[in-house]
Amino acid sequence: MDFLLRMLEEQYGTEIAQKIMEGYTKQRPVTFRVNTLKSNVETIENKLKEAKIEYEKTPWSKEAFIIKNVSKREIQELYIYKNGEIYLQSLSSMLPPIILKPQEGADILDMAAAPGGKTTQMAALSGNKAHITACEKNKIRAERLKYNVDKQGTSCVFIMEKDARYIDDFFSFDQILLDAPCSGSGTLNINDSNLKNVFTKKLIEKSISSQLALLKKAIKILKPGKEIVYSTCSVLACENEDVVKKVMASENAEIVSIDFEGIESIPVLPTKIEGTLCVCPNELYEGFFVAKIRRK
User: Fold this and answer.
1) N or C: fewer beta carbons within 10 Å in the chain?
2) What is the CATH architecture assignment of 29-89?
3) What residues act catalytically?
């Protein structure tokens, strides 16, 4: 993975690049969020205590749980998992919906929705009272999305089996979440022997091309004065800030500074755009980038 290390050193300098590489080696604990459409935090805490499962909470969401003493498989054996009262999700991927703040009654587009973690989280955050269109172009992934949407009890989601780049321009939305396809450079398992075949320069180039097209489309179908959250599970500026800057130069858009309660507890990397967030991979978090953009 010499080329990745070179890219990281070029962007962040040797010290931070090493910190990221170290983050790739960490084994993260099981994390989930409470699905408030089917349960509540107090009930889940009581169920965990009954099962003698130890947990920690995060400062930025009362619904996010970090499990201390059992495996993913053991959590999946619990009724609260099988019944959709909790949803297994990485901490970093819970951030974009929280930053978007889905509103009741809003027309919301989730542009690359499968497997549905962020879609169902947005439904829960809006109390099932938003109108969410969830796009997924791949038939098998769309089935997975439908399964999760049903299991989580989200009645406000309409699934559109379509490539979001080709959505008709007559659509318009109040809020858009674009969790764009990316190289996954924030979530790599450095111990994977097959990594050099999967993580390639070609994958990065292909990702950038999709990201630019999707973000341009997002701004076009967003109502004036409304907001998009653009996110990737990459720590590379070429997929993050560079994409945002490029699209914003040609579209009528501006950055909205990201701020929420508990943000100071998140391990961050320096970014090239003030007000954006790049999470550093460590023992709790995956590498992740988030930008909030408003159409003027």
Assistant:
1) C
2) 2-Layer Sandwich (3.30)
3) 233
